Each structure stands twice: as structure tokens, then as C-alpha cells.
Amino acid sequence: MKEPELLSLADFLYVLWKRKNQALLVFGVVVALGIAYLAVAKKTYRLSGSIYVGRFQTDLLEEGEFVAQKLQDYSFIKKALEMNQVELEVSAMKLQRNIDAHVLNEVRKTKDVGIVLLTVEYHDPEKCHAIFKALTDQLVREHDKLKDDALNVLRSMERFFKVNENELQASIDADEAFAAENLRTPQEGQAWPAHVLARYTISEKREFLKQIIQDRHYLKLEGEAATKSFGTRLSAEPQVPDKHVKPRKAVVLATAVVAAAVLGAVWALFLELVDTQIKPRFRAAKARVEARNAA
């Protein structure tokens, strides 16, 4: 059996030249389809921004990794859209796939510095901006509440210590007044049990009062330091995107041209194969059948 000959480069170029009209037709159709796709495809806009996670004193309000996960969480996205009254044509679950957030730790590789990059993609620039604002505003609200709650705890503890301080000071004053009125001063070299007990009790209360005053002073300093803490904020105010990121015109056209060239060449080779290989075989087979019938 004769082995089929391989198509050389010269043969390939000859076939392309011979079938250039058919190849150019396919090329033009594919390129036209690429241009038509650019005309009708929905444009996707992207908005990115860095979020600085707030701190209470020296501690992050929430870890950066947790903030990144929260921004991509379905329940958080849905709540943020509802709170900001953002109405979309797609569900929060579909929108979830177009939201990305991850931690940026270029400053300190081994420590969470609380910088999160949030990226939102949507086919409408105004809605893209609204979604971004809804997510960041909701995050800021929640973090402000965390900071306020922590500050309120410090203030309530300070008030609690102040009340205890006042009550303990009043108790000491009462004990001293009672001792002055009811206990005689012991004679030299003598010590009455009641007098010793009263003085011991007053001394213990004074030590306890001293500790309460120190603790309250510490809490006051903590509260003053907390007021200097900063809340969660954006690196810059987000702006409505004015250029789309998808589809990319250059990429689509380049892909269409390459695909058109390949398909045009394949179509030319296919037509040549049909004319030179397949059709002659069909004609020969038909002739043999007619010859047998005639005999």
C-alpha cells in the first residue's frame, strides 16, 4: 500500500494561494464576528481601593485576613447593599464572584499591618461605584461600633471604680469617726483589742482605696489613649470608573485575527482535500458500481 505523501511548505503555500478567495472569506467572517462581539458585549468596569483597618489603641479592630474574607462574604454583601439601598440586576450571590479582597503587607511581611485591597467589577460604572461604597461604608460602620463599644467598656469600668472609690472613702471616714467617738486612746504600754482592730480595718481599707485609685487612673489613661485611636478608612475617596476593563479591544481583535488566519488556512486545506482526494475516490467508486451493474 502506498503511504500518503506529507504536505510540504511549498504545497501548503500553493494551496493557500489557490484557495485564497475561500480563505479570505473565512478570515473576513471571523474578524467581523470579533468586531460584532465588541459592539454588543457588555462592558465591565473595575474599581479598586486600599482600606486601612482601624485600631483601638495599638490593636487592629479586626485582623486584615478576617476583613478580606468578610468583604467577600455573601451575608455581608447582601447586608451592605440593603443598608445602602443599592438595587442591582443580579443577585448578591452572582455579584460575590465579582468582588475580590486580599491583604497587602508590603510594609511588614511578618505582621498584619491592616491594609486590605478591595476590587469590585460590574457592567455599570455608577453601580460599580455604589457597590464599592456600600461595602466600605458598612465596614466602617461596623468598625466604628466596635471602637465605640470598647471605649464604652473602659468608661463604664472607670465609673465603676469611681463609685467604689467614693463608697470606700465614705466607709473609711465613718470608721475613723466611730473610732474617735467610741474608742478611748489606750494608756502607754497598753493596746485595746477594739482599738487595734479598728486601726487595722482602716489601714486595710486605705490600701484597698489606694489600689482602686491606681486602677481608675490607669483606666482613665487607657480611655484617653483610646480617643486617639483611628477608625477604618479608605486611602482615597473612590471615583466612578470612566474606562472599562472587559472586553479588551486589542486582545479581542488580536484573538480574532489569529483565529481567522488559522480557520481560513484550515478551510482552504479542507477544500483542497475534498477536491483532490475525496471526490476522485467517490467518482471511482461510482464508476465501479455502474460497471458491475452494466455487466
From TrEMBL:
GO terms for molecular function: protein tyrosine kinase activity. This is Polysaccharide chain length determinant N-terminal domain-containing protein. Keywords: Membrane, Transmembrane, Transmembrane helix. InterPro entries: Bact_polysacc_biosynth/exp. GO terms for cellular component: plasma membrane. It comes from Acanthopleuribacter pedis. The chain crosses the membrane at residues 22-40, 250-270. It comes from the Bacteria.
